[in-house]
Every structure is written in C-alpha cells, then in structure tokens.
Amino acid sequence: MAESSEKLYPNCNSSVWLRSCDVEVTEPLHGKITGKMPTWLRGSLLRNGPGSLKVGSMRFEHLFDSSALVHRFSILDGAVTYQCRFVRTNTFKRNRAANRIVVTEFGTKAVPDPCHTIFDRVASIFKPAELSDNTMISLYPFGDEIYSFTEGPFIHRIDPKTLDTLERKDMMKCVAVVNHTSHPHVMPNGDVINVGMSIVKGRLRHVVVKFPYTEKGDMFERAHIIGSMKPRWAMHPAYMHTFGVTENYFVILEQPLTVSICGVLRNQLANKPMISSLQWFPEHETNIVLISKKTGKEFKRFRTETMFFLHIINAFEQDGRLIVDLCSYKDAKALDAMYVKAIETMQSNAEYAEWFRGRPKRLEVSLAAQAMSKVTPRLLANLGCETPRIHYDLYNGRPYRYFYAISSDVDAENPGAIIKVDTSSGETWSWCETDCYPSEPVFIPEPDSRQEDGGVLLSALLWGSRECSMGLLVLDARTMKEIARVDFETPSPAPKCLHGWFLPEKA
Fold first, then answer.
1. C-beta atoms surrounding 421 within 10 Å
2. Which residue, 170, 264, 326, 447, is the most exposed by fewest CB within 10 angstroms?
3. For the stretch 43-59, what's the b/e string if a residue is b when 16 or more beta carbons lie within 10 angstroms of its beta carbon?
4. How far apart are the C-alpha atoms of 325 and 403, rounded to whole Å?
5. Helical H segments across 287-443, by residue range
6. How far is CA 212 from CA 246, 293, 443, in A?
7. What is the mean pLDDT of the chain?
8. Known binder of ligand: residue 311?
9. Does the annotation flag 391 for ligand binding?
10. DSSP state letters, 446-484
C-alpha cells in the first residue's frame, strides 16, 4: 500500500492503544474532581486490559498479548483515588526474568530457547505450564473474591484493595476445561456460569460449567458441568468470547470463525501463535444453539447469516420467542485490526474502518419454529458499538430496553463516543469530547430506583494528546449528561483498558 502523509481518520488517535505502563501506581493517587460525585456512589471500579507491549527490547505483535494491567478507581465519601498493578502471571514473571518474550502468545511468537529440542515441544503439549496465562481481558467476582480472565484455562485472584496477585487457578485441574470464555455470567444467587471446551467420553464438546455460590468454602471445588453440546465441526469448534443466558436456556452462537484442533497441535510443535489456528469459513452461516437448563442437552438450533462477533449484549425469552442482541461484524477482520502494526498504520489503510464496522443487531425467532429455521438479523441502531453493558443485576437474561457501549467507528466525527441505545425505539444518545477516548461504560444503579436507566455510567478516560493522564467519568445514564469527572496525572503512560467490574463498598 502506498504511503501517504494524509490521515484517513484524522479524528482518531490510535496511540491510546499502543501505550505501555512503565511505573505501577501502588499507592493511591488522589484525583482532581470536577462537578459533584453522587453521595450514594461508594465502591471500587476495577478495570483490566493491555498494560505493556514491551519486554526488554522486544515488543508484542498483537494487542491481546500485552501484559495484563489491573486498574482501581476507589470512590468513597466524595473522594476518588487511582491505582494500577500488573497481574503477576507466570508468563509475566518469566518474560521479565529473561528480559525477552519467552512464552508464545495469542499473536506473538516467543524467542526460541536454544536449549529446547523438538522433543521438549512435543512434551509441552501436555504441560499446561508451557501455555500463556496472561489474563488481560476481564474481571469477574466469585463470591467475595475477584479474578482476572482471558480465554485460556487460567485465572488469577486479585486483591481488590492493593491489586496484588494472590493466587492462580487452573481450570483444567478444577473442572477439566481446556479453555473458556472471557465473560462468565454471575447469576442473581451468586452462582457463576461459564462455557468452555472439554473432553467428554473421549470427544471434544462445548460444556456449560457451574460454580455454585457458597458463603464459606471454595466455589471452584464444587464446580461441575451442567450442560454440553457437540460442536458443529468436531475438529473445528467455534471460537467463543461470550454466550447468553435466558430463563430456560444457555445460548451459544457457533460462528464460522473456528479453532483448528490440528492447527493448535501443529502450532505448539512449531512455536507459532494461537491466532494462526483460527480459521474463517465465509461460506458457512452462524448457528444459534440452545442448551436446555433443565436437561443440560441441546434443545434446538437455528441459523442466521454469516457473521463474526465478540460480545452478546443480552439474550432473553419473551412471549414464546428467543431474542439475542449482539455486536455483529460481517467477518473476523476485527482481530487482524488489533495487530500492533495494523494499529500503527491505520491512518494509511483505507480498509481499516470497514474491519471494525460492527453494528448492534437483534436475532429473534419463535421457540416453536422448526430446527434450523433461518433467522434474519434486524439492525438496532446504525452506529458502531463495542464492549456493551446493560443494567446487569436486574435485566441480564430478561426483557430489557437500554444498553450502553463505546463507539467502534474509527472514521466517525467523534470516534471516542459513549453511546446509549433504546432497543425498543431505536433512539440513540451519546457523550463525547474532542481527543478523549472512554472505556467500556459500566452501569451502576441508584439505590431504590425503579427505572431501568436510573443510575450512572462509569468510564475510564484517556486523551490522545496527554499520554500520562487518566480520568474517571460519571454520566447520568438517563440523559447521558456529565455529572462529574476525576483527573489523575500518572507517573508513566496510561494504557487503555478493556473490561471491568464494580464492587460496591460494604456497609
């Protein structure tokens, strides 16, 4: 592609995705507050995401490989503080000790160890310790503990106050899953549900795992499989980042982006990254699969257009119909768009905006329809959106009206917008500020509010021209108007985060 000095996306500063934290903030930084923080808002907003692309003189090649960095915004009695710490994964410690990349990641090949033979690489297939445990995607609570997640079988317990890494859990030992989604569901009774892959009676299956809530004891010791389904293609199970939960079903979308099992084994032997095991089949449709909560077996599947997705917004049943809302793309180019080199050269790539041209769509079908009936997606709003959130505690898996997200349109006038969508009317609202890049908006309900959007949105802010600045924005979720913000000056560049969780302060 010919180089051009003209920027194709002049309103988008992609450098916010390429920052590396050089200095952790272990002692809470006090921020400067503008506006007035709601007096009822008390707790910690924890965030997770890419923290550093650098190891010695080397650099990771994909955004999903960046070392996990956890952030904390503590809100108490009108004051707000900020901290950040790297998750002390085995991968992080090995890389730092060697001062180079020694563990192959999702999109980055490790430096070969001259002491390792082909026989060592064969043996490594059966050694989980050789896999990356870089949990840099999300954070979810298990009872009163909080864990960092990625799609590999490892999670890490994080101290919600100090951000110390306290413990590493291996789901292969806990419940025999070789991977799982980055977004489990926390049910109203405290149970945690996730979907992964496991070997069941000698065959690979997608499984639904339940971690029963307990006030005392280990939720992981009681984990067990409560449902399973056969993949559409035995040696090419679908790539899954999220799934849905309704009143009677677990909802799994088998998109035509798959994980080649043979490719995984070949790549392990050849020391190649995981992303080269992913295969996109544009000639195949997407399947919507329902696993019955009652029986744990596949109830029915439907089909819809070829699509790629990362995030389901919500799924629910209403009047005998299944509704699934999601952020949909026409293909899986969004993963390619997150290569570091692609981000660096986006301003001269005329196709880049289309790679991220996701739209919120609704899949709706009668539960009485024949198996494999075709479902035509309906556009919810003609704007790009990613990292969607809802009023989760009351509306997850139930009929709802509003969701919130950040813009995914890099060619928009304000690519850093926070958006709100009314799924009933299609009406949209947004908040934006020049050169400002918000993160996933997390909805916090007001005490005793009876309105679905009665509460605030919390979002971490970065600025393209201010590398060592971090902010926390508080929006009125009803009006999308700013209530307050807090500004912090950080001792080193502040990276952009992905997903997080709000932990209310206990009385």
1. 24
2. 447
3. bbbbbbbbbbbebeebb
4. 10
5. 333-336, 340-344, 352-355, 392-395
6. 18, 15, 25
7. 94
8. yes
9. no
10. PTT--STT-EEEEEEEEETTEEEEEEEEEEETTT--EEE
- What's the farthest any 2 CA atoms get from each other in the chain? 64
Instruction: Give the bridge partners for 208, in sequence order.
Output: 195, 227
Strands of the 321-329 sheet, one edge to the other: 308-318, 321-329, 359-366, 378-379
The identity of residue 441, as a single letter, is P
Tokens of residue 274, six digits: 């995981």
Chain centroid offset of residue 87 CA: 16
Report the DSSP pairing between strands 374-375 and 298-304. Answer: parallel
Q: Report whether 183 belongs to an annotated binding site.
A: yes
**218 Cβ partners below 8 Å, 6+ apart?**
none
| CA–CA separation, 293 and 19 (whole Å) | 43
Q: Report how far residue 25's alpha carbon sits from residue 319's, in angstroms, rounded to the nearest whole number.
A: 51
* β strands within 58-137, DSSP E: 58-59, 67-76, 79-86
How far is it, in rounded angstroms, from Cα 458 to Cα 451?
Answer: 18
3-state secondary structure of 393: helix
Neighbours of 75 (CB within 10 A): 23
**Residue appearing with tokens 């009681």:** 222
Beta carbons within 8 Å of 61's beta carbon, 6+ residues apart: 107, 108, 109, 273, 339, 340, 341
Type and span of the H or E element at 123? helix 118-124
Q: Is 206 annotated as a binding residue?
A: no
311-330 confidence digits (pLDDT tens): 999 999 999 999 999 999 99
pLDDT tens per residue, range 79-96: 999 999 999 999 999 999
Q: Which residue has the tokens 């400002």?
A: 436
pLDDT exceeds 60 at position 249: yes
Candidates 136, 106, 130; CA nearest to 278 is: 106
Stated pTM of the model? 0.95
